[in-house]
Every structure is written in structure tokens, then in C-alpha cells.
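Structure in, sequence out. Go:
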């Protein structure tokens, strides 16, 4: 993130020198053995195994994110027997994949591709299609449900699924508010069902690699994490503002413009004119025609029958239920804005890193102490509730902040462990890790990623694809490698060099094959836990963890709203907000 091109290039050419048996050695060995994708790598790396028979599941919500999860499925672990969506466009993509670009098809390759079915007719012999998700839940043969609906529908869909006896993997954010999260978590725990939430970084080998480096103490005392997700979206070209089926009034042209219908016809014309030409181009045009044809059929959906509303903005513009359905991320009632959609992932990553520093290895997640946040609609007109710029600063307790966490990876102290019943002079309330986060529109410089800064070095994670390691203060003309210190532990050795080769590339596609973002692994492990019921087998992002992520994201969102309203954007987190069995919530306390 924000690295000079020559530094990136140099880093890729000068990989870290491996020490002993570490994550990178493991990855190289796995790839050399041919286990480079799917359940092979995930199972070997995270310690689960293949299931004897795939879990029969249904997918509720097959839009953008639902189709990504479908594309990540491993047939050895799950068998999709039903899907549910109210939009013909989403049903079409669920079967055929998204042909709008090579990148889109790579992520959303469709059920036919995943399971090897040649035609949609053949696929429908295996997969039932429902408009009303309650009909899907009535199928007793379905054991688990993937929920990838708009955020405001997570709670009702998950609760109905749990009450129907189904295990659930729901997309992030866990729910629209913390009271809903707590009800979902308690219901799942009481019923003995697995409820997982799709914060996929918990299953990213790349991020676990970074955690390993932190636990080695390679960065020294971690004191700051900087995260960002910057996008170039602007009015008129906003990825969250998709065209509406049936068209909408265009101010510039002074008339109703039906973008979807126009594109459908243009692809049909291109396909008809291209007969006898390039077969690949012809196939692409027909595929896009069929995709837009299905999208055009969305105009027949009565969105009001499925919980979407007509309403009016402050400037008098009327918003239809169809617009609320298609652009649900823009509204407070249906979505959670930048903090829920983007910030929740990266604050989850930050808390994973900080939790890795804990002396107590009990799996507990470190929770923030405070947040100071602001933001607003700085670029877009009043066509949404969601802010287009958010800026947050969190304080987390670091090693040494609490008495029972003192002395862990602290290079500046060599105090004895605190004795029982004796106050420890090592406890220091100043030992905090500050996390800054920004998500903006209108300028995509730097993209998205995280920078972890310690007293010995800096770790840069870029777009969930690679990890770069820098010697602290080494400058752009230093060559960094991982070596052994005098005690046999890992350290970074800096050598003078005339070329800008300061970055040690710890994990990337170059060193470890295609980097999985963790979607496949989170679904595999969820299925493994279902097939292997035992107290120790539970998804990494179980209700307590997922609710913690929701508290962080939604409290920051409340702080931003308070700042905009002139009430101040500073909020102190309360421990009971993170307690699944407490009824306390930030929404109630900050009302």
C-alpha cells in the first residue's frame, strides 16, 4: 500500500531467507507436492480434513457476494441442492457465473462451473430454485444454509434458518445491530448449531503468515496499525449505484434511460453480427446478452412484497422500492455503509494481529478501548444515507496494558513475571496500540490493505494478496532478509546495497502459488465442523468473534453519526457490549 513501484519490484525479486520450519517453508512444500488449491491447502494448513460425505446446503441470496461464495465452493465439502433469490438476474449468475469481465468470472464462476454441469437444465435437476427462502428452509434434507442477503435481512434469515434446525454461514456483517447479533448467537449456541460469519481473513494463509511473524516477535513492540480502503467511485460511476431494471430518469439527457435494456440489445446485435467470426468473442457476446436479458427481467419483481419500501429524500426525490432493493448499500435501513461493508474486514484484521500478541493463548479476541471517528458525504449528492468518507482512530490495549499480559514481546524490559497477589509494577496504561482507518471515495490511491508498525520493523499487507516486510528505518536502499539472532530466534538483518531492495516478500503468488482469500477455506471448515461435532471443532469466526467485529464497526458508525450531528465522535467501548449474554448494546447506550 503506497509503495514505490521499484520497491515492489525489488521486493518480489529478493524474497526473505527462510529460517527453520515456518509458514513460508510449509507453503513451498505444499505447493511442491501439488496441493495448491481448494481443500488440499486449507485442510493441510489449518488442520481440518475432508468430510466423508458433502454437507447438503442451500444458498439464500445469490447476488454479488452470494455468487462469490458459490464460486469458492469445494464440491468435496458441500453440495448445493437449493438456492433462493427474488431476482432473475441473481439466479442466472448463480448458475452461469458473471461474464461481465475476466475478474468477475474468476470470482463468480457459477454452479455449472463448480459442479461440472453442462447446461442449466442439467443443473436444475440437482438444484431447486425458490423465490421465497422459507420454501427452501422447509426442505428437511438441507443441513446448512449460506446467507448472503442484504445486511438488514441477515437477522430474519439466520433466525428462521436456525429455528428450522439448519447450520448457518452468513456473510458479514453479522447483523444490522448488536441486539440482533446477540439473539442470533444465543439461539445458535442453545440449539447446538454452527453459526459462522464470513470474515474470511480468519482463513487466509496470508494473514496467518503475518500473525506468525508477529508472534515470533519479528516486528518487536507493535504500536501502530494503519488500514485503508480507498476507491475512485464518483457520482455517475459508482459501483454501489447499479442501473435500475426498467430504467430511470437521467438529468443530463432529460429523459428516462434504460441502461440494462440498451446493453442487452447491444450485445445481441454484436452477437448476431459476429456470426462466423471469432468463436470466443461470439460466445462472450451471447453470454452477456443472456446475462442482461435476465437482469432486464428484474423489472417484473415486486420489491415491496419482500420488505423493500418506497420513500422520499429530503430534497423531494422519490426512491422506489426497486431502487432500495438494487442499491441497498446506500441506505441506513438496509445497509451499514462503509464501516459495515469495508471497514469491518480491516478492523477484524487489526484485532486479529493485536490478539496474536496476547500472552494468554485462549483464543480470546482483544477489544478496543475507544474510537474517535468522523466522516460524511463529501463527494456524492444527497442520493444516499451512506457516508462516502469515514475516518477512525481506535485505541486497543497492547502487551503490558493489563497486568496478566505484561512482558510479552517487550524488547525494552526484562522484568520477572508478576507474583500472585502482588500488584505488578510492569502494568502500564500507556501500552496501547493505535489503529487508524480511512475509507474514502473519489480517489483510489493506495487501494486497500494494512500496515503493521513495530519497534523493529513494518509489515505491509496489500489487497489480500501479498505480505511485505521492512526493516524499521532501513530506507529505500537496504536489503532485508530474515536471519537468526544469537539465541536462534528470528530477526531482520539489514545490509547496505546500491539497489532499492529493502522489502522482504514473505508471502505472495510468486512464493506460494495463487493466494486464496479464505472463502473456500471458511466454507470447508464450516462443513468439517458440521460433520465432526465436538466442543473443540467450531468455526474460527463463531458468534462471539463475529459479534465483536460487529460491535467495532457499528460503534464506529455511531461515532461518525454523532460527529456529524455535532455531538462529538468520541466513544468509549463498554465490555458488556462484547458479552453475548449481556443485553447491553451500543445502539441503546448511545441513543
Amino acid at each position: 500500500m503506497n509503495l514505490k513501484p521499484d520497491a515492489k519490484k525489488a521486493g518480489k525479486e529478493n524474497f526473505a531467507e527462510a529460517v527453520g520450519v515456518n509458514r513460508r517453508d510449509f507453503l513451498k512444500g505444499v505447493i511442491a507436492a501439488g496441493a495448491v488449491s481448494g481443500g488440499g491447502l486449507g485442510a493441510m494448513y489449518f488442520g481440518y480434513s475432508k468430510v466423508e460425505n458433502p454437507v447438503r446446503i442451500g444458498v439464500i441470496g445469490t447476488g454479488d457476494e452470494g455468487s462469490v461464495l458459490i464460486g469458492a465452493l469445494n464440491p468435496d465439502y458441500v453440495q448445493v441442492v437449493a438456492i433462493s433469490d427474488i431476482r432473475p438476474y441473481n439466479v442466472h449468475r448463480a448458475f452461469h457465473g458473471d461474464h461481465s469481465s475476466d475478474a468477475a468470472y474468476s470470482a463468480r464462476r457459477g454452479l455449472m462451473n463448480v459442479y461440472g454441469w453442462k447446461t442449466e437444465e442439467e443443473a436444475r435437476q440437482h438444484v431447486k430454485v425458490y423465490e421465497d427462502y422459507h420454501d427452501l428452509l422447509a426442505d428437511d434434507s438441507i443441513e446448512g444454509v449460506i446467507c448472503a442477503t442484504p445486511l438488514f435481512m441477515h437477522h430474519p434469515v439466520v433466525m428462521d434458518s436456525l429455528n428450522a434446525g439448519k447450520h448457518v454461514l452468513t456473510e458479514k456483517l453479522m447483523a444490522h445491530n448488536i441486539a440482533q447479533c446477540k439473539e442470533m448467537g444465543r439461539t445458535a449456541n442453545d440449539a447446538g448449531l454452527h453459526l459462522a460469519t464470513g470474515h474470511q481473513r480468519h482463513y487466509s494463509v496470508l494473514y496467518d503468515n503475518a500473525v506468525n511473524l508477529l508472534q515470533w516477535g519479528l516486528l518487536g513492540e507493535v504500536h501502530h496499525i494503519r488500514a485503508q480502503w480507498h476507491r475512485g467511485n464518483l457520482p455517475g460511476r459508482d459501483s454501489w449505484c447499479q442501473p435500475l431494471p426498467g430504467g430511470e430518469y437521467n438529468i443530463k439527457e432529460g429523459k428516462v434511460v434504460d441502461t440494462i435494456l440498451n446493453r442487452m440489445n447491444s450485445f445481441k446485435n454484436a452477437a448476431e453480427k459476429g456470426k462466423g467470426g471469432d468463436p470466443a468473442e461470439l460466445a462472450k457476446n451471447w453470454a452477456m446478452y443472456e446475462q442482461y436479458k435476465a437482469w432486464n427481467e428484474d423489472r417484473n419483481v415486486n420489491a415491496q412484497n419482500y420488505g423493500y419500501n418506497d420513500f422520499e429524500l429530503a430534497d423531494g426525490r422519490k426512491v422506489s422500492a426497486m431502487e432500495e432493493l438494487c442499491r441497498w448499500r446506500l441506505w441506513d435501513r438496509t445497509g451499514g455503509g462503509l464501516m459495515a461493508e469495508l471497514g469491518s474486514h480491516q478492523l477484524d484484521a487489526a484485532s486479529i494481529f493485536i490478539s496474536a500478541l496476547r500472552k494468554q493463548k485462549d483464543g480470546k479476541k482483544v477489544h478496543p478501548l475507544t474510537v474517535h471517528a468522523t466522516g460524511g458525504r463529501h463527494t456524492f449528492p444527497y442520493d444516499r444515507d451512506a457516508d462516502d468518507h469515514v475516518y477512525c482512530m481506535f485505541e486497543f490495549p497492547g502487551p503490558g496494558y493489563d497486568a496478566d499480559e505484561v512482558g510479552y514481546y517487550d524488547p525494552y524490559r526484562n522484568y520477572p513475571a508478576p507474583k500472585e497477589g502482588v500488584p505488578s509494577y510492569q502494568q502500564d496504561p500507556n501500552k496501547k496500540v493505535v489503529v487508524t482507518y480511512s475509507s474514502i471515495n473519489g480517489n483510489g490511491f493506495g487501494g486497500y490493505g494494512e500496515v503493521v508498525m513495530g519497534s523493529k520493523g513494518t509489515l505491509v499487507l496489500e489487497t489480500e494478496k501479498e505480505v511485505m516486510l521492512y526493516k524499521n528505518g532501513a530506507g529505500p536502499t537496504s536489503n532485508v532478509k530474515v536471519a537468526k539472532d544469537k539465541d536462534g530466534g528470528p530477526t531482520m538483518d539489514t545490509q547496505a546495497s546500491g539497489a532499492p531492495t529493502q522489502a522482504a516478500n514473505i508471502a505472495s503468488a510468486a512464493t506460494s502459488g495463487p493466494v486464496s482469500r479464505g472463502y473456500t477455506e471458511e466454507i470447508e471448515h464450516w462443513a468439517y465442523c458440521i460433520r465432526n461435532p465436538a466442543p473443540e471443532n467450531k468455526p474460527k469466526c463463531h458468534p462471539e468473534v463475529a459479534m465483536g467485529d460487529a460491535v467495532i464497526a457499528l460503534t464506529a458508525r455511531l461515532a461518525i453519526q454523532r460527529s456529524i450531528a455535532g455531538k462529538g465522535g468520541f466513544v468509549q467501548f463498554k465490555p458488556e457490549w462484547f458479552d453475548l449474554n449481556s443485553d447491553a448494546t451500543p445502539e441503546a447506550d448511545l441513543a
